[in-house]
Specification:
Helices cover about 70% and strands about 5% of the residues. The protein is mainly α and about 575 residues long. Keywords: Membrane, Transmembrane, Transmembrane helix, Transport.
């Protein structure tokens, strides 16, 4: 029997996937996965488009200050230190963009070297990026540090999914993926208050929002060295041969396409006119790269069907494709809701960073509760298509109402209720696709490849949604702001600074009419962002309807027998 056949045999549903691993090591492994997921969550949506926060109460309108969602005051502080308003949005986008850009590489590298050592190396890369960003002498260096963190974080996150896919039993899989999803959401919430406290402290400054990652990642590194089980997923061939088979052309296309897409979206409008040569050229190059990527992967140019960067053979699996599409829509909807709901409270209510975090809790807590509940219930009732149908209906209802009613005059209780409803929908669809596909697939390679496709769909959905939403916010928001207060003599730079959340003459004018109309314009564009969430919910509903009406066997009895 070949080594690959032995691996698949050892991971079949009839045997326990970690019979050779001591219980304490598995528990330590789970602790490492939870901690790194928490860190990734805190950084995945770590710094979002900065937000000005005029305090709007009754007939009195005045400026309280400025805030950034997950690391309050980071971007205004960076702008004050380094300037360069055009690069400021890339601080938020660079991490998620880097994660998406290296996902195919993270899949291929897991087949080249033992998973444990890849994990350890990725944590070291992550720490290096945090150190670079924290010590940065200018804004481009901060962005470079964030990109390095994204590269390390992508491999860590993919490895987390792979460790669960390889070593968890079918009964444990949905619960563990639900737990990791909940932990990721917790990380998204706690990043704001912690970063705000560090950035606003004169002794720590914004640099410690990056430095604080070092001890926690160091703790994860120690745990990984001690506890992670060793596992090599690839063929028994020399290391050089493995590295030669990673499909460098496909990986290069994967890196270039999302970067060009983000460049075209983010710079068209704020930096380049939409009809300018630079904007058109960037869009054309992006289109050529996308077509080239598709052709190269489909016809396996410079690679083979087994070694290509993207496991396209799985796209023919009609039982898996709707899961990935729905997961990508859930990721996109989650990112937009998490970014722009606090932004509404900042502009329309003048709430501080902590007050925004508190008002986001209905969304996050409901999301976490539903993720855990669905993860625990799926092995019992097994009909996964129903959760996606429920997810689509509730997301459409909540986001559609939010998009249609969001204004400075809407009651906070209504917004809190609607964000909780969106949390129900996204909690049903966010993380469960990889657990379901892990049960559907019977071989370790298909499970790992499915986890990669899920990760690409989810992180791609987040990155693409943030790029599109950011372009809408900057372009539509600027037009609405110009129509509302442009006749007051404000320059384009001042209006874009107002949208960026740095010190702006708009919010410092002290004119109640200007501030009121400005807030109304920003609230309007935030409401329009939620139409993207409506679209995501509609696609999720369609995916749920076309999924197989089947009841999955999670092997609960078999796994219990093996454990006994």
């Amino acid at each position: 029997m070949s080594s690959s056949e032995k691996d698949e045999s050892s991971l079949s549903l009839e045997t326990h996937p970690r019979s050779h691993i001591p219980d304490w090591k598995w528990k330590g492994t789970l602790a490492v996965l939870v901690l790194t997921t928490l860190i990734n969550g805190r950084l995945g949506l770590y710094i979002i488009p900065p937000r000005a926060i005029p305090n709007h109460r009754s007939d009195e309108v005045f400026v309280l200050g400025y805030d950034v969602s997950n690391v309050a005051n980071i971007q205004p502080a960076l702008y004050k230190a380094f300037g360069n308003i055009t690069l400021l949005p890339w601080i938020s986008l660079s991490f998620s963009l880097a994660v998406f850009a290296v996902l195919s590489f993270s899949r291929k590298i897991l087949y080249c070297v033992d998973m444990k050592w890849i994990y350890i190396a990725s944590l070291v890369i992550f720490m290096a990026g945090a150190a670079v960003a924290g010590a940065a002498p200018n804004l481009p260096t901060v962005i470079v540090g964030r990109v390095i963190m994204g590269v390390g974080g992508a491999v860590v996150y993919q490895s987390n999914l792979t460790f669960v896919a390889v070593f968890a039993t079918p009964d444990e899989t949905p619960r563990l993926f639900g737990l990791l999803s909940a932990i990721w959401a917790v990380g998204l919430v706690i990043g704001g208050p912690i970063g705000s406290a560090l950035a606003s402290n004169k002794q720590t400054t914004w640099r410690w929002a990056f430095y604080m990652n070092l001890p926690w990642v160091g703790l994860s590194l120690a745990g990984a060295i001690i506890c992670l089980p060793r596992k090599y997923l690839g063929p028994e061939i020399p290391l050089i041969s493995r590295l030669m088979a990673i499909d460098p052309i496909g990986i290069a296309f994967n890196m270039a396409a999302p970067v060009l897409f983000a460049l075209a979206l983010e710079f068209s409008g704020p930096v380049w006119d939409w009809g300018s040569g630079a904007s058109i050229a960037t869009w054309v190059v992006f289109g050529v790269v996308m077509v080239g990527w598709i052709i190269q992967q489909y016809w396996c140019i410079g690679t083979t069907s087994e070694q290509r960067a993207i496991p396209l053979h799985l796209l023919s699996r009609v039982d898996l494709l709707p899961l990935w599409i729905a997961s990508g829509c859930a990721g996109a909807s989650y990112a937009i809701t998490l970014y722009y709901t606090p932004l509404f409270f900042a502009f329309a209510r003048g709430h501080s960073a902590m007050e925004q975090t508190v008002r986001l809790l209905p969304f996050v807590l409901v999301f976490i509760a539903v993720v855990i509940l669905v993860g625990a219930s799926l092995p019992v009732f097994g009909r996964y298509n129903l959760i996606y149908i429920v997810a689509g209906i509730t997301t459409i209802t909540g986001a559609g109402t939010m998009a249609g009613t969001l204004s400075p005059l809407v009651s906070e209780s209504q917004v809190l209720g609607l964000e909780a409803l969106i949390g129900v929908g996204l909690g049903c669809s966010f993380q469960h696709g990889v657990g379901v596909s892990n049960v559907i697939n019977k071989t370790p390679r298909d499970r790992v490849d499915s986890a990669v496709m899920f990760n690409m769909a989810q992180m791609g959905g987040i990155a693409i949604a943030l790029a599109i939403a950011g372009s809408i916010f900057q372009n539509v928001g600027y037009n609405l702001l110009t129509d509302a207060i442009g006749d007051n003599g404000y320059s384009e730079k001042e209006l874009r600074e107002a949208l960026a959340g740095v010190s702006s003459a708009v919010w410092q004018s002290g004119k109640p009419e200007v501030l009121s109309r400005g807030v109304e314009a920003v609230a309007t564009v935030i409401g329009r962002e939620f139409y993207l969430v409506v679209a995501g919910g509609a696609i999720c509903l369609v995916c749920g309807l076309v999924m197989r009406w089947e009841r999955l066997d999670y092997g609960r009895n078999k796994s219990k027998d093996v454990e006994a």
